[in-house]
Amino acid sequence: MEVITTHINADFDCLGAMIGAKKLYPQAEMVFPGAQERSLRDFFLRSAVYAYDFKRPRDIDLDAVTRLILVDVRQSDRIGIFGELADRPNVDIHIYDHHPSGQADLKGSLEVIELVGATVTVLCHLFMERGITLNPEEATMMMLGLYEDTGNLLFGSTTIRDYQAAAYLLGRGANLNEVSDFLTQELTVEQISLLHDLIDNRTVLNIGGIEVSMSHGSTDQYVGDLAVLAHKLKDMESLEALVVAVRMGERIFMVGRSRRAEVDVGKILEEFGGGGHPSAAAAAVRDMTLVQVLEKLPMVLQKLVRPQADARDLMTTPVKQVTVDATIAEVRGLLTRYNLNAMPVMDKGRVVGIITRQIADKSAHHGLENLPVAEFMNSDFSTVDPKASIENLQRLIVEENQRMVPVIENDHLIGAITRTDLLRHLVSGSDAELGAEGGMAAGRKGPTPKKRHLARLIQNQLPKDISRMLRTMGEVGDDLGVAIFAVGGFVRDLLLHQENLDIDIVVEGDGIAFAAEFARRIGCRIRSHRKFGTAVIVFPDEFKVDVASTRMEYYLEPGALPTVEHASIRLDLYRRDFTINTLALALNRPRFGELLDYFGGQKDLREKAVRVLHNLSFIEDPTRVFRAIRFEQRLGFQIGQQTLHLLRSAIRMGFLDKVGGPRVLNELIIIFKETDPIPAIARMADLDLLKYIHPALTWTQQDRLHFEGARQALHWYDLLFTGEPCHRWLVYFLCLVTELDRDALVGIADRLGVSPRFRSVLAEERDEGHRVLQMMARRTGRDRELRPSELYGWLNHLSTEILLYLLGISGEEEVKRLISRYFTHLKAVSIVLNGNDLERLGLRPGPLFKKILKGLLAARLDGKVVSRDDEIAWVRKQYLS
Predict the structure, then answer these.
(1) Residues in Cβ contact with 697 at an 8 Å cutoff, skipping those fewer than 6 apart
(2) 695 and 772 in contact (C-beta within 8 Å)?
(3) Model pLDDT for residues 93-136, shown as the tens digit of each residue
(4) Of residues 508, 322, 481, 351, the one with CA closest to residue 414
(5) What 8-state DSSP symbol labels residue 464?
(6) CATH homologous superfamily for 314-430?
(7) Does residue 676 carry a pLDDT above 80?
(8) Which CATH architecture fits 2-183?
(9) 240: pLDDT confidence band, cut at 50, 70 and 90?
(10) Where are the domains positioned within the chain?
(11) What is the CATH number of domain 189-304?
(12) Phi, psi (5° rounding) for residue 506?
């Protein structure tokens, strides 16, 4: 016998999951092991669920059970009499659940467990994968479970897979009116009384600045839907975190709800034998009184609630500084170079003052640039240790108007906190990042969402070996005492649910030393570049990961290559091009999966906007103009209004003229390597950028047709799987310059620094390709079919790129057919005989051999010879008869 069951005090997720499991185990009996929540009992009375023939526990012969299917539970003490089966070797256990492991003691031969909002979601995705169908009644019951456990898809624990499951159920006929009717019910008299007690008994425990509300109640009878009452209390009082404990008869029922990352109610209620998600959890306590629970709860909270940030969490490190004998002119240069508003002044390793941009500028205005900073620095300042509270920092910065607070540990400067750092914390809260300024570096202002942890997304979206690799990197970083982060496009595309395994790792420390240690442990090899502090980890299967030390860049003049210095992760991210590329994932064990968002990257991802970090971005590196267009078109985003204004200004003021040709070519190549580069080229034309390649370049409808033809040709070539490489970018580049003459192309090649390897393709070979194309066009429509050897002779000396270019720009279907015929039937044709064979036939080596072999190839192409013997016979007939 097979039995499908769930936990006692079952809710709608239990019902929906049991109905779903029945689709997988049609012969199994469905049994509730104990009581149900009141709303579920009402559903049984008012619906046709009785038709599904649920059994009672007493109807089941435990000795006859061979398989136990558990849904929404993994604890033997929560499944009633079926807990007796857990240790029986003849009972096969299958588990479907959505809760973290916690104190689960049951293991199954089959376990399907996902950290999603509801167990129903787990089953829906199985149905989608296997093509299992539901009727509308089944879909409605499963939707009830999904909506209840995810709070109508609004709880913080809700995932994208829950929304996909809801869409699937809706498509199977789930009745949302019924779902609304059963989930929205009036409170009973008993529930109203208990809610009144919970309101009166609420107290607040402050743990390091985090407020956790606790409440309790007592009743001699069971009152259902305690979770509903907890939600109402949380919403009525606008609570961030709440734990309630209610005695009902001889048992204590607990419910936890949290909106704060620091308050993981799942772990908190594990201490009482329960569990759940970080944002929602429950427990049923048997062996303690209500008084004992209320005595234990504050101690558990003190142990498990992570306190708010202190000075170490807010500070910027390392700190840019000046010595006491530096001049005001030197200080102004450093403040401008690093985009800072204040710097500590050092003397023999000690902080002796603080100099601000305002004071430095005023001193220079009065002609005092050559005087030492010691004459004007603020020497009346306070410092803090790394454990200083936010309140203390707020007093110093806000009330005492101190622009910068040095953080001192063991008489050494280890960091600094500015007004920006404090503002970021106060505006967004301790569990959020402000998308404004990077530490002591200015940026675009605006709050971003609360700090996110993406461990679940990493687990669900990435291949298992990549997920393991990232965790191992964090562990190696822990052992070396350095912070490890994944950064850039990999993180951006992870959030966009787009595949991208081009992984960049940065290390707050020695990146090469980290790469070497990781490679030693895993059995990889590395290629390092000591000059740049970078390395490439090469895995046995040739998969590569780039590693670099965190660094910052500044530009000595517009368009120049940047000067690089070591810096913190915050400043490392600030040097990047656009906000959407400034996201970072912490990989060290204590913070694994934590998303760092200092500059509003998440907000811009949601708004589908490409924005620079600061107003001089395109001035410092004008090639970002091309990158802005590339990301805009690839992601389907829009360049932000202010960013577009800055981009147009940089173009208008001629800053692109200062960029070396090879850098421009590199950006073009990257654009041409996009899956579809046409939108990006059209956007470049719209912004008048094509003139930087050549003044005569235009973008017409004919150009678009050429590009579209080339895209189709390249796609067709990919499907041939010839194994021969093709430089895709070169095909598109040829399309772009189709109308330019040879002299113009030579000029472009000179300006862009095109390598000699491709110069001949752009000039001589392109001209030859155009000549051949004209010849082929003239031959189409004639009575005599072009011999294969003639076609081979026309095309064989042209590169693959030129041939695909011709295939793309030709408007003649017959010409396209001929070129495709060359690729598919002629290009790989070869002869068997060689010079040695000709000697054995009695021919003397010399120029004649080349003529013979050429004629022999033509004969094979034209089908006159098909074997080695045919080739020998042909040679004898032509030259030996």
Answers:
(1) 690, 691, 736, 737, 740
(2) no
(3) 999 998 876 666 788 899 999 989 899 999 999 999 999 999 99
(4) 351
(5) H
(6) CBS-domain (3.10.580.10)
(7) yes
(8) Alpha-Beta Complex (3.90)
(9) confident
(10) 2-183, 189-304, 314-430, 452-595, 693-826, 835-880
(11) 3.10.310.30
(12) -120, 150
